[in-house]
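Run log // design_07
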């Protein structure tokens, strides 16, 4: 594939993602993505003692799930902050940038703290929102 064709395909893919990912169009998918990736983080960490050093494979898997959670939170938009103010949405959205650009400053204890302190309330907020979306769908 030529460079021009590759650029065209990427541009088209980005346009499709923007259309698909408008906050008002797919909040259920983004909420479910967050829940799914939190569950994956927990599965990756099953059997690992808190404070233990993570092997590279586990750490890479957990980091990637956290990046997906961050990206999904961005795509939910500002409305979610009003509906679920107990969650640090700004921190969750910023986490992806830190993991991508300042990865060398994030150690296993930081990841453990994020998992222990933030993922439980975040998951519950998303489950609550999914239930509200289902109730709205059932009522309408």
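design_07 sequence
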């Amino acid at each position: 594939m030529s460079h021009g064709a590759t650029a065209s395909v990427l541009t088209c893919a980005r346009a499709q993602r923007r259309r698909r990912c408008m906050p008002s169009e797919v909040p259920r998918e983004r909420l479910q993505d967050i829940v799914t990736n939190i569950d994956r983080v927990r599965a990756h960490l099953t059997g690992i003692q808190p404070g233990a050093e993570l092997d590279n494979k586990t750490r890479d898997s957990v980091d990637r799930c956290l990046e997906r959670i961050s990206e999904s939170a961005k795509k939910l938009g500002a409305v979610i902050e009003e509906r679920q103010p107990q969650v640090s949405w700004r921190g969750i959205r910023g986490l992806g940038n830190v993991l991508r650009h300042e990865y060398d400053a994030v150690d296993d204890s930081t990841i453990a703290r994020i998992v222990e302190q933030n993922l439980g309330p975040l998951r519950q907020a998303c489950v609550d929102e999914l239930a509200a979306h289902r109730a709205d769908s059932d009522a309408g």
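The chain is about 75% helix and 0% strand.
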